[in-house]
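Q: How would the structure tokens look for this protein?
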Amino acid sequence: DLANLEQQREEFAAEVAVRVRKWYQLLQVFKKQPDSVEFVYLANAAPHSIHFNPYNLEVVPHAEIRGATDYYTMSSQGVTHFWQDCTEFQPLESFERDYFLYAQTM
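A: Here is the predicted structure in token form.
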């Protein structure tokens, strides 16, 4: 029923908010350490959800990325999205701005 669907959507939104806070905190750390050579792997936590959100990213170990066709890396230089045979790079500020624009539309 409609009430149950709305409850599921709200629960999913709360889970996404927790994940976004985690990677957003890392983004802020990387912005403050521009010479860092560290990076993290990110993957969409619910890539097949009816409530798909491209920013529903979670930090994952390299083992979970091996063989994947859709994942991200985040470093002090920016965020790189690897999807099938394509690669897209965005500086941190650009990724952050795009996230805020997306969030405003939702």
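Residues 2-32 form the longest helix (31 residues).

The chain has a mean pLDDT of 90.

Upvote if useful.
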